[in-house]
Amino acid sequence: MTASPPRVVVVLGYSDGGRGELHPVCAARLARAAEITGPDDVVVLSGWARVPGTRPEAELMAEAWRGRAGKVVVDPVARTTVGNAANAFDDVRRTGAREVVVVTSRWHAPRAKAAFRLVLRGTGARVTSASPVEPASPHASLRELPLWLLLPAQVAAVRRR
Prior knowledge:
Shape: globular
Oligomer: single chain
Largest sheet: 5 strands, parallel
Number of helices: 5
Helix content: 40-55%
Radius of gyration: 15 Å
Number of strands: 5
Strand order of the largest sheet: 3-2-1-4-5
């Protein structure tokens, strides 16, 4: 009997810029990932340091990680949602994953799933999302609107690499 390929669970970082500690939004995402992750999953913790001289979100998440996982990958260089997806691409291809779960806030999930689906097109991986329980944030949802306009250009730039 052949084992099925692992899922890749990508936890997207969040920061308000350089406090040197895990932001509560990021901590909630990390806790949600720990709830849904199993021992065969590959977990990718993704996020950069917005302020020079501070620790990247990915490293802060790795330090706080308490979930089960077959492997934890720390991606401290992704600066955008498309960058998160592009950096996870190698993990998806290497593991042969057929499912990618993007863990992010509810207000960010639609654009994050779209970015991952575009970047991972052709891998055969299904993209879903999981979000922590959180209050609705109309302000954050509105902030997402102009970022949708950048998505095609960002994906095209990643594909050219």
